[in-house]
Structure formats: C-alpha cells, structure tokens
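Worked example 3. Consider a protein that binds (S)-3-Hydroxyhexanoyl-CoA.
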Amino acid sequence: MPVVTTERHDDILVIISDNPPVNALRQAVREGLVAGIDEAMSDDSVQAVVIRCDGRTFFAGADITEFGKAMKGPSLLEAIDRMEASEKPVVAAIHGTALGGGCEVALACHYRVAVPSAKLGLPEVKLGLIPGAAGTQRLPRLAGAEAALPMVAIGNPISAQKAQSIGLVDKIVGEDSLAADAIAFAREQIGKPVPRASEGTANEDGVKNPAIFDEFRQKMARKIRGFDAPNAGIEAVKAAGELSYQEGVARERELFLKLMAGTQSAAMRHYFFAERAAGKIDGIDPATPLIPISKVGVIGAGTMGGGIAMNFLSAGVPVTIVEMKREALDRGTGVMRKNYENTARRGRMTMEQAQTAMSLLTPSLSYDDLADCDLVIEAVFEDMGVKKEVFGKLDSIVKKGAILASNTSYLDVNEIASATKRPEYVLGMHFFSPANIMKLLELVRGEKTADDVLLTVMKLSKKIGKIAAVSGVCPGFIGNRMLSPRQQQANAMIMEGANYWEVDDVLLEFGFPMGPFQMSDLAGIDIGWHRDPDKIETMRDALCAAGRWGQKVGKGFYDYDEARQRTPSDEVKALIAEWAAKEGKEQREISKDEIHERLLYPMVNEGAMILEEGMAQRASDIDVVWINGYGWPLYTGGPMFWADTIGLDAIVAGLEKHGLPVAEMLSKKAAAGETFNG
Ligand code: 3H9
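Given these inputs, the predicted complex is written out as structure tokens:
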C-alpha cells in the first residue's frame, strides 16, 4: 500500500498521506506528494487540489530519523515548490499538528483550512535547527515578521484560531467534516488567481520597524541563552525582509545546514528520542493491561504534597489530600488555591478551569478517607521510621489492588515496601520541587514492583504532563546520586583554595541556571541545621551560627541586595579560610578548567556506575533526568551524551589527572573507543 494515494471528487483531486504514527515527511511521502501534484497538473479535468492526512495528524514534520543520512528522492523544498507553482488552487486540510516541514507544506499550499483543535508551528528550534524548507521565508511574507519571530525562534505551536488571526489559516472548518469542508472550500477557489505565500508582503512590518528583531532578542534573552538556533531563526526572519525570496531561501539553507552540522542540534535530536525512549520500560509488554486510576490520595499538604496534588487536579483526576492538623490542611489548600488563581491571572488557564481543578480536591484529616483511592502518594518527612509507619497504616486502610507510592528522594523503596503486605504495589514517585511545575518524575522500581503497576504509573505520568524515567533502588536514585559527587568536589575545592563564586560561575558558563553555592542559598543553608549556634562542628554550622541562612535572610554564601543580586561575602571568605586552616588544607590557585573537570567528570563517572549496576535502563534516561530535573543544558544533550561528544578517553584522563576514581564501565568503554549512546 503506497503511503500517499489520490482520490477524485469530480473536479477536485485529493492527495492523502497515511504514514503512521505522525505522517513524518519521509522520502516515500515526498515522492507521493510530487506524484500527486503531477497527476493534478497533467489532468485538465482537475480544477483544484486538497492535501490532507489520514491518521492522528497532518504532517508533523520532516522525518528526523533521516537527518544526517544521504538525501534520497525529491527534497522537501522541491516537493513543496511544485505545490505553490501550481496555477490550480491547492488547499491544505489540517488536523492534529502541522509542525515543521508539515507547516511548510501548508505554507506552500495556496490556502489552509483547519479544524478548531489543530495546532500549527515551526518547532525546529527545539531540535537545534531552523525550518529548512522555506518556512522562515514564506511565514513572514504571509503573516508578518513580528508574528513569525516567536514561531521560528521559540518554536511553540499556535492554535488554529491564533493561526487564523495572523493569516496563516484561511478558514476554520468542522471538527468532524474536514475532508468534505476542504473540498467545498477548494471548489470555491476555482478560477481565482492563486495567492502564493512567497509573493506576500506582510514581512514589510520588519522593514518599516527593524527594531523588532533586537527587541525580540532582548525579550527572550534568558530563554535563548546558550542556544545557537534561535539567533539563526531571528536572522532568517530578518532576511525575509531584506532579500528577495530566492536569496532568502538560500540564506535559510546556509543557516540550516550550519546548524545541522553542529553539536547542539545533534544533542537536541538525541534528547528528542531520549525523552520518548525514557517512556519505554525494558522487559514490560506495552500492551500489559493498566490499573484504572480514577482517584488519587496524597499524604501531606505542604509544598511538596500540594504541588503533587495539583498535577492530578489539573489533569481532571480527583484528589483526597490528608494532613494531621486542621491548620496545616487549611494552609496547604489555601496555597494551592492561590497558585491556581495566580496561574489564571497570568493567562495560563481560565478562572473557571482553576475553580474546576479545586472542586476536585477533598481535604481530609483522616487516613480512612483514602480507602477508595486507586493510587496514594505520600510526601511526608524523609525518615525511614516515619515512612514505614505511614506505609503500614496505608496498607491496612487503602483498598486491595491500589498502588502505594513514596515521594522519597533517596530512601530505600524496598525497605519502605517491606512495611506492607503488598510490596508488588509499592514504588517510588520522586517529584521535583515545585512539583506542579517541574517536568521530571523519577519512577523508582522496587525489587518486587509489579509490571502493571510500573506501566500504569508511567502512562499516568504522561497524562499529568510529566517526563518520567525509571530508576532502580539506590541511594539518591539517578538524579541525586549524581549530584552528590559534584557537591563533594565543590566543597572540597573551596577548601583547597578555589573561590566559591568561581565554582558557581563555571557551571553558569556551562549553561546551568545556577551553581551549587547559589543553590544552597536558594534552598536555605539552615535546612536540617540543629539550631544550636554554640555547637559549631562544620562550615555549615558556622554559616548558620552567623545567621547566614541563605537568600531568604539576604545572606548565605553571598550577600544579596534587594533585587536578589549576589555579591561574594568577605565574612564567608574568612570563614572558609579559617576552616581550611583548621582542617590543614593547603591553599592553591585552582583554574576554571580544573573546576570544570572536577565538577562534571565525576558525574559522568557516577552515571557509568548507575548503568553498570543496572539502576538506569539506558544512558539516555540519565540525560532525561538531568535535563529536566537539574537544569543540565539541553543543548549539550545531557551528561552522558555530552561525555560522548568530548570523548570518554578525555573524561578518564581528566579523572585520573585529578586522582578521582574511574568506574570499570567507563574505563572499558574509553579503552574500546565506545560511547554511552552507541
Ligand atoms: C523539520 O521538519 C525540518 C524541516 O523544516 C526541514 C527539512 C528539510 N520524525 O511524540 P510522540 C515519532 S524538523 C520521525 O510520542 P505524541 C516519535 O519518535 C521536524 N519520528 O507522540 C515516536 O516514535 P516511537 C519538526 C517522529 O502524540 C512517535 O513518532 N517537527 C517525528 O506525544 C510518536 O511520537 C517536530 O519537531 C518526526 N518528525 O506527539 C515535531 N515526530 O513511538 C516532532 C514524532 O517509536 N514531533 N516521531 O517512540 C512531535 O512534537 C510529537 O511527536 C507530536 C506527537 C506532537 C507530533
């Protein structure tokens, strides 16, 4: 069965692509589209053309798996130029997502009709690229440079309604009658001169006001810091106003090819597939029947519990939240309500949606109210004794067959499970703070966790908008376990003479949002402190005793001004020197290169041990965890992909140079010239 077929409806030829799952524009599809257009052109009885897709979506883009391989068949640009060149009207009929190359197909058609639920976008920038089939040249000419800029340089898709408002969609048609409505629309265009996006003049907005490009760059500065593609995108859209269409396409090509050959795009394409791979669980049949989850229980209404609950409420799943004391319960639910209201105020949801979410919440002071929940997640104090008590209690109250999950960030999930008579229904669900915002969810698979339990929670993660990765049971799981050697090195280096702000700066320059000492200040240095200012046994005790509790009191490792700008503190410098002397640490100059290697290489080494012990299913899962949970810069592809790009032999040599341990897997792979990601 060919992937592209044609269908005659009197004087209209309908070209239909059916290339599951997302109608990616692979070679056979491009050939089919060209053949379809040729058929329409060579048949005088055809008066107009409709291009549509079967399956769940209109073309979701070029086929990313073909990137980096030799191009076969017509290029996408050749294929779509044929559409635009036609004198007979060509109409794109859009449902699902018209993304990247798919949006470029739509732009090359003379008209676009879409169902109300459709989305259109140019997300190439999220793959470290810019559109490469004239999208940066046709879109500004059709919709204006100002409207094109966020689409090209940020890459978020827009709704059909928004697309109509900027001229990208001509008509919104019935959700269930796209095929027929598109044919009727095409028939109405017969005999009229065809409008071509490449001949549009909307891009003159950027010519009249060239300041929009710099303004946009400034507005987005934080978001695009470190990424190459957004700037290339801005440049390409600007070129659409400065150059002829043909010259503009050549400029786009030049920018596209440069990005395609670079490490950033390779890293971001790696991440695209890594994120999808993380959702797959080795050894579990994806067709395993799932446990229905229609009601969730959360224990603890503090920051973590409240945030966890909001994920489910926002996804329309009723939640019962339990606290010990009325005051804490009221405070917790109050904070949730406020968070929703703020989100609505910022326009990210309607007030009505916020109210609907809150109406699904049942606050309670009794564990008994959790009896009929299908999944209960505890977010209580991180103490094994407390956790085991909670799980024993839950086991006796919550109905048989329900899943019991712990939000622990480092405790032994097998031991927690042992407090119940249903260890196969127990697992870890490690959310990251703020739990309603952070994307990452570590699913901790206990020794006895049943397949259907893990698969159910994996599927549920997607429903609540999380990116989940499976970890085995080990202290700190994947994420915190790898954080630990980095922190150890950071602490050790400041005792050996490195400036703590330089340690932070090295990570900032690498692309992290903050360094370890800034992070301590943000989290609060006094967390877990014994609160006795006379008992000073560590550097941290000394900081706490001096009232340097972190950002919340205006001073921690740094002094903070009112705008929360940090300045290294003389008091802290003196404290560090004093402690270093006490510990007999010799002081020396430590270069930024050494800081960089000693912070990051041990993380790669820990990642190798995690793989060696089978605690992560695959190296790319580790990348997913670090990018989504800890701010590892996406454009490097995550710690394991990054290590591959700089060479495992270089990592080993660096570790040895600094007298740091080297995992067996790492040294073997390095010696064999292998990489983590194959
Ligand atoms: C481009 O177009 C460049 C052009 O400008 C120029 C060219 C010259 N290719 O995400 P899902 C696979 S760049 C190949 O789980 P959802 C995906 O790996 C492209 N494969 O589904 C997965 O495979 P598996 C610009 C693709 O419903 C399966 O499809 N376009 C592609 O959650 C299902 O995917 C984009 O960047 C692809 N383009 O979300 C859009 N897309 O089942 C990328 C998906 O084996 N795609 N697959 O794991 C998406 O954003 C989402 O897939 C989409 C559906 C929203 C469409």
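Take a moment to read the result before moving on. The pocket of (S)-3-Hydroxyhexanoyl-CoA is lined by residues 21-22, 24, 57, 60-65, 76, 97, 99-101, 104, 123-124, 127, 131-133, 135, 276 (CB under 6 Å). The longest helix spans residues 592-612.
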